[in-house]
Amino acid sequence: MTRLPHSRKTGLHMMAALAMALAPLVQTGVASAQTSAPATTVSVSLPTEPLLVQINQVALERRGPKQAIVEYAGDAGEGTYTVLRDGKPVRNGALRPLPPFSEWSLGKRYFSVDFSDAEQAGLYQVDVRIGKQHATSAPVQVRDHAVFATTGAQLLGYFHRSRHTDEADRDLPIFQTSRRVNAWGGWQDAGGDKGKYLSHLGYANHFNPQQASMAAWALAYGAQARKTLFAAHGLQTQIEDEAFWGADYLHRILDAEGYFYTTVFDQWGTPGAVRMVTGYEGAAGTYTTLYRSAFRAGGGMAIAALARASMLAKQTGRHGEFNGTTYLADARRAYEHLRKFNPQYCADGKENIIDDYTALMALVELHNATGEQRYLDDARERAASLMARQAVDGGFISDGGSRPYYHAAEAGLPVISLSAYVDIEPEQARRQRALDVIALALKHELAITNAVANPYGYARQRFQLTQNGKAAGDVLEGFFIPHRNETGYWWQGESARLASLSAAMVIGGRKLAENGTAGYGLPDEPARYAQSQLDWTLGRNPYGMSMLYGFGAKNPPTVLESAGEMFLGGISNGITGAVGSDTGAGISFAPGPDSEQWRWVEQWIPHTTWMLFAVMAMSEAAESAASDSRP
């Protein structure tokens, strides 16, 4: 979802900006009519009200953490709160002060209201008074399977609305070859980008996000392994259709030699640019020959997706244009190819942590689909390589040196991949080694997040700044991804990263916890961490904005010039560090100019993918925890 610099924006984009529409303000789950406006610029600043009550605006689990954050700019002392259910008071008390915090705005004090023990379903609000100031939160639905039940149909619908069906993609050239191939289908990558990506940013080596291949896997996994959940909400046929749509696309972009095409690209719709199978790099979108997907460039998750789709086809007797036997043959062939040639497809010729955890996911799913020992043997090697990258404090190292692992889209995937490996490993000693690594990794996530005052519980991260094109120098910590990084220009909101960490805490934590009672079968601190990451995206943030379009009291604006269409069920990139901060310190959301608004406003396929996966995990864990508690 990279974008051209402002100097390269075209008249077409400027005309689109003139037609820009303001985003609708919507109630939970029900979108209102969109209002057009002639404005050509959009700028969103932090709210200036002296008293604000920020809350998840979409849904909270009946048996799970529930917390509102109060921001106050004033001189009065203590305050009080009242929790309302369906408009009626159900409890009240004194606000709990939080540690002083000035990272994002000076002169404010922060308080919290915890109503986790309010377990009766209903529509909740939190009403707060401090001195002469009075404020009430947005409403939030409390129920079982909360976010999944409330948003699941539209999260799935986002993928259908994002399908790419241009017939021209049936006959595309491959960069610097005379060949033409059928790369039809799949999903457009983002609201303003009709390109299709298994992964991008490969030239930067440590930034590859799993894009269309991750979506195809999450959908196939949900349809096959979480069938009961989707069927209970009337969504089974819908998710099966979308899973097979993704698998069919992966079949088409699997070259006869055994590698996947990484991107279908046209320089973000630049007039005159030829749409083709190609690699690219930099803010200018310069075409390159790096179009063969390494494990880390989407190849690993594509193999995992096809293997899981083969299991889905076997389970249901259904399939897409191609059948389950074909999907599994594709997965086998692609793995054997990458097993031999993967380093050649890496921009720097060296595997790193992303190769490890994506290859591990591929091997787990191949073993699940076939039961063959050779895939377990290779999975053990990949798991060992991944675990060897863990530092003594639990964080991971990206490379063979000292570069810390940080990722703007999938920071939870190392733990998720190891958790998947645990499920196929029959030897107790090997299982325990993986569980120990998971435990230490999750402990690190909690420790770094809680190391400083952090009223919203936002997941912090460790990183280095770029020097001469490579990460170097002191290892730093902060809330948001650094703006001075190896890509040279790419940074954006981290909705996908937060959901991936939430999923990792639930999935990994459930393998470690015994009779946790704070939500999702977890102890208190992990449960709150998992909830806080989703709460941020769903409205409990300093802007009071739900990034999930069509849900919540306020959504991001539409900025057609650089962020494109807004689909119901799509999730915007989100909040970042302040513009101009190399380290990503401070805070910013959609400050303009409009040509840069993609960094905050644009919807991107990994965000909805990871949100759907996280709420699947939470719903499964909530149901399992409820079962564990029954006599």
What does this structure look like?
The structure is a single chain. By secondary structure, this protein is an alpha+beta fold. The chain has a single domain (146-629), classed as Alpha/alpha barrel (Glycosyltransferase), CATH 1.50.10.10. 36% of the residues lie in helices and 14% in strands. It has 14 helices and 21 strands. Strands 4, 6, 7, 10, 11 and 12 form a 6-stranded mixed beta sheet that branches. A 4-stranded antiparallel beta sheet has the order 3-5-9-8, with no helix packed on it. Strand 10 and strand 11 (133-136) form a beta hairpin. Helix 6 (299-316) packs parallel to helix 8 (353-370), helix 7 (324-345) packs antiparallel against helix 8 (353-370) and helix 12 (495-512) runs parallel beside helix 14 (605-629). The longest helix has 25 residues, at 605-629. It is globular. The model is unreliable at 2-39 (pLDDT under 50).
Question: How are the SSEs ordered, and which strands pair?
Answer:
Blueprint: H1 11-18, E1 21-22, E2 35-36, E3 51-54, E4 59-61, E5 67-72, E6 79-85, E7 88-94, E8 96-97, E9 109-114, E10 122-130, E11 133-136, E12 140-143, H2 146-161, E13 172-173, E14 180-181, E15 196-197, H3 212-225, H4 227-232, H5 236-252, E16 263-265, E17 276-277, E18 279-281, E19 286-288, H6 299-316, H7 324-345, H8 353-370, H9 373-387, H10 413-424, H11 428-449, E20 461-467, E21 470-478, H12 495-512, H13 524-537, H14 605-629
Parallel strand pairs: 4-12
Antiparallel strand pairs: 1-2, 3-5, 5-9, 6-7, 6-10, 8-9, 10-11, 10-12, 13-14, 15-16, 16-17, 18-19, 20-21
